[in-house]
Amino acid sequence: MIDLAQIVTVIQIMTTILILMRVSRSEQQERNRRALVVSARRMLAAAGPSVTLEAIADDAGLTTGAVYSIFGSKQKLFAAAVEDQFAGQIDIVREVSATDLDLPGVLVAYARRFQALASAAGPVACRTELSEMLLLVEDDDFRLHCRELKRQELQRLTRMLTGRVIPHTRPRRRTTAEQAGQLAAALRAVLSGFAVQAYLDGGTRDCEVAEKACAALARMVG
Q1: pLDDT digits over 142-170, tens only?
Q2: Chain Cα centroid distance, residue 84
Q3: pTM for this structure?
Q4: Is 173 helix (H, G, I), strand (E, B) or coil?
Q5: What's the pLDDT tens digit per position in 49-94?
Q6: Which residues contact 141 (CB under 8 A, 6 or more apart)?
Q7: DSSP state of 90
Q8: Contact 126, 190 (CB under 8 A)
Q9: CA nearest to 32, candidates 90, 80, 85
Q10: What are the alphabetically sorted keywords of the record (predicted)?
Q11: Domains of the chain in sequence order
């Protein structure tokens, strides 16, 4: 006779095995994706936008087939590398946004954390960004993707700067969304400029001057 209990047990075991296999494949794909993104950033910094998929895949210990399977194209891999570069900045915005600092205070707090992140990344981050700028000229789809990422970055910075107390106003006022948007664009430009200058100077950063420059942006509003 057929033992229904045993059949049910076997089915449950097989189902569990299939689930574990799917999870394992998913985890492996995510590890491969991460390895390719890290290698893309590293190779972009080392060889520029002309770097081949073969070189990136080899650096990651994978094949070009893995690149196409996960990303579909070289351009989409580079786009993922750009998004990865924004991840640390998103964490900084989230952390600073949670404070009740006034306008100069929040500008300095963001500048300090941004520079710490840039220093930890070293010259690789700046070389990668310069390579990405060359790609912006060469590839329309890549340019549109980066434009959207930059727009999202400005939105995050704008939210972070909105509603901050402006200490030099009497009576005390708070920043409007429009003022915060203008400050966000200026803040990004100042910090990007200092990052490039540090790279040109061989990695030397004058963090105090950068922080003072960012704090001075508060005088833009009143």
Answers
A1: 788 888 888 999 999 999 999 999 999 98
A2: 4
A3: 0.77
A4: strand
A5: 788 999 999 999 989 999 999 998 888 888 888 888 778 888 999 9
A6: 75
A7: H
A8: no
A9: 80
A10: DNA-binding, Membrane, Transmembrane, Transmembrane helix
A11: 1-72 (1.10.10), 74-221 (1.10.357.10)
> Which residue, chain included where needed, has tokens 């030099």?
168
Between CA 93 and CA 23 the distance in angstroms is 32
Residue 221 reports pLDDT greater than 70? yes
Q: Which two tokens stand for residue 171?
A: 């009576």
**The pair of three-digit structure tokens given for residue 17, joined into one six-digit string:** 């095995």
Contact of 198 with 204, CB cutoff 8 Å: yes
Nearest alpha-carbon partner for 210 in 76, 90, 110, 73? 110
CB count within 10 Å of CB 31 equals 10
DSSP characters over 191-214: HHHHHHHHHHTTS---HHHHHHHH
Query: For all residues of the chain together, what is the average pLDDT?
Result: 84
CA–CA separation, 52 vs 44, rounded Å?
10
103 is written with which tokens?
């306008």
Of 190, 55, 192, the residue nearest 126 (C-alpha): 192
- Give the residue-averaged pLDDT of 12-26: 64
Token match 């509603």: residue? 163
Residue 151 and residue 142: Cα distance in Å, rounded?
14
Buried b (16+ CB within 10 A) or exposed e, 50-75: ebebebbbebbebeeebbeebbeebb
Task: Return the pLDDT at 20.
Answer: 54
Beta strands in the chain (DSSP E): 165-166, 173-174
- The pLDDT of residue 144: 84
